[in-house]
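Hi R.,

Here are the chain sequences for the assembly we discussed:
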Amino acid sequence: MAQINIAEKEITVKIVYYGPGMSGKTTNLLYVHQKISKNTITDMVSIATEGDRTLYFDFLPIETDIIPGFKAKFQLYTVPGQVQYDATRNLVLNGADGVVFVADSQWSRQKDNVESFENLKENLAKQGFTINDIPYVLEYNKRDIEDTARVEYMDYLLNREEFKVPTFESIATEGKGVFDVLNAICRMVVAKILKDVKR
Amino acid sequence: MILDQLENGHIVLTADYIYNQVPIELVNFISAEQGRDLQQLELMIPLADVMKQVSPSLIAAHMPKDQEDSHWASEAAAIGSEVTFEESNIDKKTKEKEEQ
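And here is the predicted structure of the full complex:
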């Protein structure tokens, strides 16, 4: 959960990009890294295999002074999407304040989306949470590819929990929707922190 | 049976089920990779082809009726532009500082 340093007037927030392998999680972070102000960002750490698959995680810290008097540091992580790296996903997900679920819009990947979303819920459960306890958004990526699943069907697969969450269509390779997703999840997480602080 | 599986993101029918629907001479499931048990033989149905024939209203009808909007999303709307990262190579707050 968010770390609040009163002395330094600094809030550190962890946002995790989750989803099946090759859905575009790392592409999201790379685009943010390329396009965001150099004043608000430090280097991106990425540990990938030869085939450009995320092996451990990607890490991108960005910051802004969003809360009066406080600097907020958003730490963006991705998890490896491949099924066999569940232990790593669990580790990266630990302490997350918000999640971006990056789904692949291709018809052939809908099963993987469903399984990855179930895996997210299972890993949250291991940490004592439900999907409803944490702010999250759904990003339907690769909308430029021909023969993508209808948004209504992807909602049917992924957005049927107790609370209907914001969804975004994206083409991460071109940056379309990437910042809309980033801003939405950052705002939701900040809203939750402000509410928690007031309690 | 197909509609029951739509929420899985893939559709699989057993040979046993298919043979109950269509004449056996029209379907040949027997492959080297699978056994001969009709209840085990499976046929993956192209999801896209099925969904193109399913009315969007049918999907809408199967969405939860009592679903509420995410309360964090509605509360986030209130803080709006206070949290904004822009992709113009400079974020809003930095831009404001530079303008000052």
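Helices of chain A lie at 25-35, 86-93, 110-126, 151-158, 178-198. The beta strands of chain A are 3-5, 10-18, 45-48, 54-67, 70-78, 98-104, 136-141, 163-164, 167-169.

Let me know if anything looks off.

Best,
T.
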